[in-house]
Amino acid sequence: MANVTIKDVASYAGVSKATVSRVLNNHAYVADDVRTRVQQAVDTLGYHPSRAARRLRANSSDILGLIIPDIENPLFQSLVRGVEDTAYAQQMNVVLCNTDDIPDKQKVYLRLMQAEQAAGVIVVPTHPDDRAVLEPVREAGMPIILLDREVANFEVDTVKVDNVHGAYVATRHLILLGYKRIAVIAGTQNLTPGHERLRGCYHALKDMGVAIDESLVKIGNFKIESGYDLTHELMKAAHPPDAIFVSNNLMTLGALRALHELSVRIPEDVALVGFDDMPWAGDLNPPLTAVAQPGYEMGQQAVQLLLRRLAQPDASFCKIMLQSRLIVRQSCGAHLRGHNSP
Amino acid sequence: MANVTIKDVASYAGVSKATVSRVLNNHAYVADDVRTRVQQAVDTLGYHPSRAARRLRANSSDILGLIIPDIENPLFQSLVRGVEDTAYAQQMNVVLCNTDDIPDKQKVYLRLMQAEQAAGVIVVPTHPDDRAVLEPVREAGMPIILLDREVANFEVDTVKVDNVHGAYVATRHLILLGYKRIAVIAGTQNLTPGHERLRGCYHALKDMGVAIDESLVKIGNFKIESGYDLTHELMKAAHPPDAIFVSNNLMTLGALRALHELSVRIPEDVALVGFDDMPWAGDLNPPLTAVAQPGYEMGQQAVQLLLRRLAQPDASFCKIMLQSRLIVRQSCGAHLRGHNSP
DNA sequence: TTGAAAGCGCTAACAA
DNA sequence: TTGTTAGCGCTTTCAA
After folding, report:
1. How far apart are CA B234 and CA A238, in angstroms?
2. Can you give the pTM of this predicted structure?
3. How many CB pairs under 8 A join A and B?
4. What's the number of CA atoms in the CB half-sphere (13 Å) around residue A232?
């Protein structure tokens, strides 16, 4: 009933607490018969060491903090699974925190992880200026891995996706398909993915010799409503676009909804390519052409980076850049206009 | 740099550790000037109490374990947010665990929660026979709240949805719209939602005087492939259905994919109604008619139940049953056949 | 190869 | 109103 402690095991097995501890932690210099006797005691008593006590002793835990904006975003879902599966295989436990991109929440969670003596944290930072909050945490001895987004003036292990290239490929794809008025719904510009994706767009337009019409560039905030509103703006204009590149999944969903409401045919009237794939992107109306980010691998890599940092606290900082890839379905009109795929 | 402890604060403020502790925990009988002096010391030193130590002392924590099958399922996403938001407001911290419906994983996580001295766990159990794993945990003093599914012979606080009624309404909706050959893709039958939803179907068919064609009843396992495969089976048969009720979101996605592959028009050739709504259900092709479960509220209620149990450990067990509601979009064909909605 | 003892940071009697 | 002290469960010297 009451909790079984190491003391109970010790007296049951007729040895000292120290010996039980040694058995538990696989120390050398324990007689075989003693070892088995202790094991039996542990089993019959159903003993499990108190993590609180261990943590107090060791001043660290096997907890891995994972701080993300929002679990309802499909990208972060696969990312979380990548982190969890990898951590689980290493006997680490993941504590998931949603910041909703609110810096204060992020601060609270970072503090929590410190207080919990987490082994380290993997963070998708809320803001490029987050250095002020992150640096003290690292100074206090907790390894930090940044994921998906970067923070200004903050050298740190990072896993990200080549946003510029992804957006470049998507935009070029639209150009090659012959669209003339390509609009872009960009994301929050002071988030790395936001401006990198816009830059990728611009690069492609320039490289392919397409003049940039600034009235076709809208800056959103990565949320559904934003995609919805900006699409309305775009389509209500005197010269609406014939194709739209949307910078993330949520805004793409908003764009889709707006276009349906306006009874605009996709891709006949307007073609659509989104950044971020979703498991059900092929079931949307129409099946969505999208730049797929390797969310699961991003999670995996982040954990690997953390383990490396834990093993070698003084190793130099490392940035891992993963590739995205374009998945051509129907919203871009490739099936109508032929395959000029990149 | 090094961790600031209560001792540091005490000596900085020129008082004893006990006094610092009293200030920290808002005890009465602390002189005002002492209180402020300690507060200042805390602030300037940037002190945060060690949770490990507190936990060791108190033999319990403010951690709430949330054990679900899979975060990639939209239902569990809103559920998680409901739990997190509610717990957060109560200063509790949520540790999320995905079992993938694998009993062994569930066992590991339950053990982890015990070792972490969680205040309680909210569990979506993997199996109706899970009593053997769950009961010992509760016996050991940890409150358990069951969510979404029930466990045989295990009296416990539970939050669930009225699956029978939800399926009933969905099926009746199809009957009222005039469909004659209504198929059902059911879920795992030894999971409560699985057989309850099938029962709801049967009830509706019987009540409305529709003969049951057993060849139109398929038992799946709640996963995408299952919905996909069974839809293929259904449509390849000599007498395919003119409507399908699918028992959860993932299988509905599979069904949708299969129907598209077969170039079956929805709802003209086959109507479709799914259990579980999804944020983007309206963007699917066609917009999906679905039974919406109140995932967020389920999460909220589960936390409330846990708090109640924590406050009154001996209160009698309580079962909360939430209603689902039918959201009529286009996949059921209501817009073509007129509004015979329930 | 084993045991005794100290101490991790905190809180709660008990005393003053 | 405050300080002293013991102890939560564990690991790790140090000594035997």
Report:
1. 49
2. 0.85
3. 105
4. 9
Structural Rg of chain B based on CA atoms = 26
d(C-alpha A55, C-alpha B51), whole Å: 9
Structure tokens given for B208: 């409305």
Chain B partners within 8 Å of A285 (Cβ): 283-287
Task: Write out the two tokens for B297.
Answer: 């509220």
Is there a contact between B254 and B229 (Cβ–Cβ < 8 Å)?
yes
Q: Which residues are within 8 A (CB) of B150 and not within 5 positions of it... i.e. 6 or more apart? A: B125, B128, B158, B160, B192
DSSP symbol at A338: -
Q: State the virtual CA torsion across A161, A162, A163, A166 in degrees, nearest 10.
A: -110
Nucleotide nearest to A50 (CA to C1'): D9
Nearest chain B residue to A139 by CA distance is: B1
A111, A256, A283 ranked by CB distance to B257: nearest: A283
Chain D positions with an atom below 7 A of a protein C-beta are: 1-13
Q: Which residues pair with A327 in a beta bridge?
A: A290
Instruction: Count the residues in chain A.
Output: 342
Q: Do A257 and B283 touch (CB under 8 A)?
A: yes
Please check whether strand D approaches the CB of B13 to within 7 Å: no
- Measured in whole angstroms, the distance separating CA B266 from the mean position of its chain's CA atoms is 30
Q: What is the full per-residue pLDDT of chain B (342 aa) written as tens digits?
A: 357 899 999 999 999 999 999 999 988 788 999 999 999 999 999 888 888 899 899 888 888 999 999 988 999 999 999 998 899 888 788 888 899 999 999 998 898 888 888 999 999 999 999 999 999 999 888 999 999 999 999 999 999 999 999 999 999 999 999 999 999 999 999 999 999 999 999 999 999 999 999 999 999 999 999 999 999 999 999 999 999 999 999 999 999 999 999 999 999 999 999 999 998 899 898 999 999 999 999 999 999 999 999 988 889 999 999 999 999 999 999 998 865 444
Report which of A115, A59, A290 is spatially closest to residue B49, judged by C-alpha positions.
A115
* Cα atoms in the Cβ-side hemisphere of radius 13 Å centred on A341: 14
Instruction: Tell me whether A231 touches chain B (CB under 8 Å).
Output: no
Within an 8 Å CB–CB cutoff, is residue A61 touching chain B? yes
Chain B residues in contact with A117 (beta carbon < 8 A) = 50-52
Question: What letter represents residue B158's amino acid?
Answer: T
Phi, psi of A144 (to 5 degrees): -125, 135
